[in-house]
Amino acid sequence: MANFTTRLHQQILARKTPALVGIDPRWDWLPREIQQAAESGGGGQHACVARGYERFSCELLDIVAPHVAAVKPQVAFFEQHGLPGLQALHSVMTYARKLGLIVIADAKRGDIGTTAEAYAEGWLAGDDPEAAAWPADALTINPYLGTDSLEPFVRIAAQRNAGLYVLVRTSNPGAAEFQDRTAEGRPVYETVAQAVSRLSDLTRGEGDRYGCVGAVVGATWPHQLGQLREIMPTVPLLVPGYGAQGGTSADAAAAFHPDGTGAIVNSSRGINFAWRRQNYATSFGEARWREAVAEAVREMIQDLATHTPAGGLAGT
């Protein structure tokens, strides 16, 4: 059975794009029709919001599934609404798997020993969506506790053909406060990158180009992104920060190998709530929010094809 990254890249080649859509529902930003339908179902506030999130997210999935290989539900937006939110998240992830999408759970888990193992057991379903309580193909994790906190995740990911994306150089402006601090003559993010590269290489089977351990590196730091691609040549990259956070396709270009493989680029708000963008508000408006989402996905795909090596995927 193919490892996670091989499965992901097969899907990327089939769609001919590395575009990744984040699923980040926010109640105040939902179309009024979605809010009204959720409110009509009764129940308390959390149940109402969760119902709206589930419907909105599943409609998003229907729109983007023909165009992209993977989606990235942000766990926090669902988790804040307790049990109803978690039930909605599970339904959304399950539906995404049924549509043939790769599901990356953005939960940023991290702990030591048996606790790390429990997180991994619970979240990493891998190629069999029934293998874990949560049907995620891959999971984002935090390396702050050290390499031993990563090892249980790596072991279970390798067993289940699941994937991991370790936070290495995050896209937020405050990332430099800790990640740029120098230790032994190099910034902390480089130390983390080297550890990720070693772990990823351990999971590469014969003939595999990449391991199942990936890295999160923001497009908002294009110079460091280029450096980190050199440090981690066989590590798959997840690149946030594109679009609403200010990163451009040109900023993300260094994440890719010359043939257009090796990375996925995420957009969440810019896709989910495309009709709220200034250049889309007049053309579409809230009533045509679904069309705005579809157009925003097409625009992102074209942008990445034009300004990154991903344009070469069209010829594969």
Largest sheet: 8 strands, parallel, barrel
Provide the helix percentage: 40-55%
The CATH superfamily label reads: Aldolase class I
Q: What is the mean pLDDT? A: 94
SS class = alpha/beta
Strand content: 5-15%
In CATH, the architecture is: Alpha-Beta Barrel
The total domain count is 1
Strand order of the biggest β-sheet: 1-2-3-4-5-8-9-10
Rg from Cα: 19 Å
Q: How far apart are the first and last residues' alpha carbons, in Å?
A: 23 Å
Dominant shape: globular
Please write the CATH class name: Alpha Beta
CATH topology name, in short, is TIM Barrel
Low-confidence runs: none
Number of helices: 14
Helix and strand pattern: HEHHEHHEHEHEHEEHEHEHEHHH
Care to describe what's here?
This protein has an 8-stranded parallel β-barrel, surrounded by 8 helices. It has helices at 4-15, 32-39, 45-64, 75-79, 82-98, 113-123, 147-160, 176-179, 188-202, 222-231, 249-252, 269-272, 278-281, 289-307; strands spanning 19-23, 70-73, 102-109, 138-141, 163-169, 182-183, 186-187, 213-217, 237-239, 263-267. The protein contains 14 helices and 10 strands. Helix 2 (32-39) crosses helix 3, helix 3 packs parallel to helix 5 and helix 6 runs parallel beside helix 7. It has a single domain (4-306), classed as TIM Barrel. The chain has 316 residues and is of the alpha/beta class. 47% of the residues lie in helices and 14% in strands.
